[in-house]
Write a structure and sequence with these properties.
5-stranded mixed β-sheet, about 210 residues, elongated, 5-stranded antiparallel β-sheet
């Protein structure tokens, strides 16, 4: 989620680093905005294109999984739903975060123990069409100062009936007197054309011990 100083569905993975400021391994927002993408084509057109190339046809079918192309309209926008966010830590039971967050927006959404190891786990449902370059962005502030700005690529997902589970690499929360306290954060899931599928604004705490 963020701080100071899921069968896996995608070919790439990353993490939101509460323990340090993450460095992006791909283009910045400014560079993303300058990328010129080609015209959008339907799943049927994807399969029809290069259909005489047997290896390419099999690769496309594998990418699309169990999608029934006869039930897919000519052109649809991908529908991506983040079903759940889970914080997995060996020091405590899993924290499953409700989406949308119906709790008091001014109260902490969750509390983490300082210096504890954890992974983020996302459950993602994709419908209608392939979503390309889905990425997770996370910005964290403490007492009004930005302390973390993370961007991590999750990958490209094809539509399927089952949800994907994507697990991020292990991270460690910061520790020490200055690390403890309340944080505010903004988390977003966007694709390679910066279409946003979920935006969360919330607060969380880092404490010396886990919440009871």
């Amino acid at each position: 989620m963020g701080g100071t100083d899921d069968d896996k569905g995608a070919p790439a993975s990353g993490s939101a680093a509460p323990g340090h400021e993450s460095e992006s391994s791909y283009a910045t927002d400014e560079e993303d905005a300058q990328i010129q993408l080609g015209p959008k084509i339907s799943i049927k057109e994807h399969l029809e294109k290069d259909k005489d190339d047997e290896s390419l046809r099999r690769w496309k079918e594998q990418l699309l999984g169990g999608v029934d192309v006869n039930q897919v309209e000519e052109v649809q926008e991908p529908d991506v739903k983040i079903l759940s966010l889970t914080i997995v830590s060996p020091d405590r039971p899993d924290i499953v975060l409700e989406i949308p967050n119906s709790a008091n927006p001014k109260a902490p959404w969750f509390t983490l123990k300082e210096g504890s190891k954890y992974n983020l786990k996302f459950s993602i449902k994709v419908s209608n069409d392939i979503v390309c370059g889905l990425k997770y962005t996370n910005t964290v502030w403490k007492t009004g100062l930005k302390v973390d700005n993370s961007k991590e690529m999750l990958g490209t997902f094809s539509p399927q009936a089952e949800s994907y589970t994507h697990v991020m690499p292990e991270e460690v929360t910061p520790s020490g007197f200055l690390a403890r306290g309340s944080y505010t954060a903004k988390t977003k899931f966007v694709d390679d054309v910066n279409k946003c599928y979920l935006e969360l604004n919330y607060t969380f705490d880092i404490q010396k011990d886990c919440a009871k």
